[in-house]
């Protein structure tokens, strides 16, 4: 199940990507200035190359000084400043477009976890279909597996697979290879198909075995999943949990009844709001609190602080300010855990110290105001 820590990690990764796009947009703006003040090779007029070179240098200097000012305006009849104004305007337009793109795609990518979850359930059904067509080994026991039957005829699985176009129809070669070289050679599977009267427990154990020890462990299948889904390594544990919980939840006494699919999170609508707001507010923090971060890290060169650490600090500030129900200590501890996994070995100590000082100052200023559960341990 998707939890808040995972959402923080996904937001961090998205913010990191967004910052890289900002750098690219910055470079594009400077390229625009350079191109504008380059000699026009198609012009019949004499080009003053030295003056163009000076103008380019001056425009680049002004841009680097004022690029963060969204409302920058050129003085009338000043060609250099007019070019800078256009470069700054286009820079911020590209950033806004990228921000909307990343905001949208990070939600889509998170929701694709459900797609992978359904595809794994359908993969088990595909194995049963191949077993039925295979005449070299009697696999009737597997074909008649009660849990596979329950998945096959589950309305929710059917609806989602149709709505999202989830199927294995384009992977027949992979399916056959996995079935022949992996499943059929598995000792537990060979023992299972020999059973004449498999019990519900037998059916459940083999399906869980296929899910946990074959689909989520075999190198060939894992390799395919990683190639087809860039987030597989990150989301693998969540998908595995959804699949195994589903297979364990199908009741023996009502095996022919509809079973409920696992939810992506306890309350996806609330979590989605948290996810999006955290991303959006973290972007604002850099502009609003960069000087404060610089001040509190004065013993560190802010330009040399690990990029991941800077993103983590900005996210923590955004969360402390914008989510009154989350205690400050919870926020700090969560981002220390993120730093342990994604940043440098010394980052957790650095981030803990910086956030503790910044939190204290923002609380004294009245910027951080907690309520309800957010007041717990908030000393």
TrEMBL record:
A UniProt-annotated Pfam family: NusB
Gene Ontology CC terms: cytosol
GO molecular function: RNA binding
Domain of life: Bacteria
Coiled coil region boundaries: none
NusB/RsmB/TIM44 domain residues: 258-358
Entry-linked InterPro entries: NusB-like_sf (IPR035926), NusB_fam (IPR011605), NusB_RsmB_TIM44 (IPR006027)
GO biological process: DNA-templated transcription termination; transcription antitermination
UniProt keyword Transcription regulation present: yes
UniProt KW keywords: RNA-binding, Transcription, Transcription antitermination, Transcription regulation
NCBIfam families: nusB (TIGR01951)
Family: Belongs to the NusB family.
Record-given protein name: Transcription antitermination factor NusB
Protein species of origin: Fulvivirga lutea
Taxonomic placement: Bacteria, Pseudomonadati, Bacteroidota, Cytophagia, Cytophagales
The gene coding this protein: nusB
């Amino acid at each position: 199940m998707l939890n808040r820590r995972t959402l923080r990690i996904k937001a961090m990764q998205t913010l990191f990507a967004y910052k890289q796009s900002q750098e690219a947009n910055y470079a594009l703006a400077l390229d625009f200035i350079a191109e504008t003040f380059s000699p026009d090779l198609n012009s019949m007029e004499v080009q003053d190359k030295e003056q163009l070179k000076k103008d380019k240098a001056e425009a680049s200097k002004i841009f680097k000084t004022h690029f963060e000012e969204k409302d920058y305006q050129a003085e009338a009849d000043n060609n250099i400043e007019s070019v800078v104004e256009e470069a700054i305007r286009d820079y911020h337009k590209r950033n806004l477009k990228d921000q909307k793109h990343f905001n949208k795609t990070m939600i889509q990518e998170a929701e694709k976890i459900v797609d992978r979850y359904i595809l794994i359930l359908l993969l088990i059904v595909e194995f049963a279909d191949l077993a039925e067509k295979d005449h070299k080994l009697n696999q009737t026991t597997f074909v008649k597996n009660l849990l596979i039957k329950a998945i096959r005829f589950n309305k929710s699985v059917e609806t989602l697979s149709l709505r999202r176009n989830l199927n294995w129809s384009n992977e027949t070669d992979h399916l056959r290879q996995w079935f022949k070289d992996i499943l059929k050679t598995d000792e537990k599977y060979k023992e299972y198909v020999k059973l004449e009267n498999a019990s519900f427990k037998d059916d459940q154990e083999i399906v869980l075995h296929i899910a946990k020890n074959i689909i989520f462990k075999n190198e060939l299948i894992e390799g395919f999943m990683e190639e087809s889904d860039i987030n597989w390594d990150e989301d693998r544990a969540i998908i595995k949990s959804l699949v195994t919980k589903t297979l364990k939840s199908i009741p023996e006494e009502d095996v022919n009844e509809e079973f409920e699919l696992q939810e992506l999170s306890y309350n996806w609508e609330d979590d989605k709001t948290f996810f999006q707001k955290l991303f959006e507010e973290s972007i604002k923090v850099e502009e609003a609190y960069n000087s404060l971060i610089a001040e509190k890290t004065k013993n560190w060169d802010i330009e040399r602080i690990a990029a991941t650490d800077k993103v983590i600090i900005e996210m923590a500030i955004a969360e402390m300010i914008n989510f009154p129900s989350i205690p400050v200590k919870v926020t700090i501890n969560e981002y220390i855990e993120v730093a342990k996994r994604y940043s440098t070995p010394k980052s957790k100590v650095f981030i803990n110290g910086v956030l503790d000082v910044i939190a204290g100052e923002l609380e004294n200023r009245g910027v951080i105001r907690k309520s309800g559960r957010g007041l717990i341990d908030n000393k």
